[in-house]
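Subject: Protein record for review, amino acid sequence with backbone structure tokens
Concerning: The relation between a protein's sequence and the shape of its backbone.
How to read it: Take the token row as a discrete description of the fold.
Enclosed: The protein record, placed directly beneath this head.
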Amino acid sequence: MAMSSIQISAVIAGLNIAGTITRTPPGSQGHEVPLPAAKAGAVVTKTDANTCTCQMAAGHGFADNDVVDLHWDGGCRYGMVAMVDDVDVNEVVFDGGAGDDCPVAETAITAAEQITVDVQLSGDSVELVAVKSDVIAHVDFETSAPASIFAQSLAVNAPWIWAADVGVTNPFAGESIAQAKVSNGATTAGTLLIGFAYDSDG
């Protein structure tokens, strides 16, 4: 069995706190996902918590029914559906989704169409998971329905990790992970990494 590990190192109040979480489950998978640059814009009108109209830069490329994540300073609303205005093609209504409430008018935003990553994994079998992006990003792990199991915003080069048997509830417990929906929140391209170690009998 191959060894998988998460190394943790912290310096707090002059103390060096470091350790390694090691597991040797039989299964593992890794995904390196290119993230195309998001498109910049600004909110024109906030209709309600899950609907807003945004003025996007020319050539944004969004079409009706694209599934898009909206990012802004301090927030993200993911899984929104785009609808392009017939008169002004650079004005796009984003509706639905989950996460933070849509921001108010004049808020600068970025928008990116979701990318689907095939995962296919029993949530109960997970022993270790780590997710990292070199740009601000968002990941939403879903069932095949699809329905969201666990979603997480990612700061630049700040990994999100989880390990079994360290006293933290498994965010995937009782679910079958079918896919991850990921998006870039930056106007520069980036790369997102997802790694799982799991008990293949779980």
